[in-house]
Amino acid sequence: MTLKRLSRLLCTLGGVLTPATAFALQNRSLTVDLGANVKFSTVFGNAVSALAGLAGTFCGVLFLIGAFLMVISRGKDDQLQKGKDLMIQSLIGLAVVLGAYAIIRTLFAVLY
Q1: Angle at alpha carbon of residue 72, lines to 90 and 68, rounded to 5°
Q2: In degrees rounded to 5, what are phi and psi of residue 27?
Q3: Residues 6 or more apart in contact with residue 27 via CB below 8 angstroms
Q4: Residues in Cβ contact with 81 at an 8 Å cutoff, skipping those fewer than 6 apart
Q5: pLDDT, tens digit (0-9, with 9 covering 90-100), for 60-106
Q6: N or C end of the chain, less CB within 10 A?
Q7: DSSP code of 90?
């Protein structure tokens, strides 16, 4: 699997699969060993925030790798195009992740 396909898959995976889990069970709670009552929406919201942060960081790293490829291309068109493509794909992946995060946060604000 090439770096291009891997980056496209990983950047869009968070954005595609995250909204499918938004239909989680309501009014479920978890009891922690300390006796604290934690709602499922709180745990799920924290998990979604963490995953969105990780996916955003990954897309940012891919963007920097693409920029580095452009800098070290030394005028070679194929390396320059590879860097441009990686930067564009990482921005598209970041937009998908942020859009999915916004949709999930909006759904949680309306439902809970």
Answers
A1: 30
A2: 55, 30
A3: 40
A4: none
A5: 999 999 999 999 988 888 999 999 999 999 999 999 999 999 998 89
A6: N
A7: H
Show the CA angle centred on residue 80, arms to residues 71 and 4, nearest 5°.
Answer: 105
Residue 32 backbone zone (phi > 0: left; psi -120 to 50: alpha; other: beta): beta
SS3 content of the chain, % helix, strand, coil (to 5): 75, 5, 20
Q: Rg of the Cα trace of the chain?
A: 18
What is the total residue count of the chain? 112
Q: What are phi and psi of 41, to 5 degrees?
A: -65, -35
For Cα atoms 20, 26, 31, give the angle at the middle one, nearest 5 degrees. 110
pLDDT band at 55 (very low <50, low <70, confident <90, very high): very high
Q: Quote the pTM value.
A: 0.63
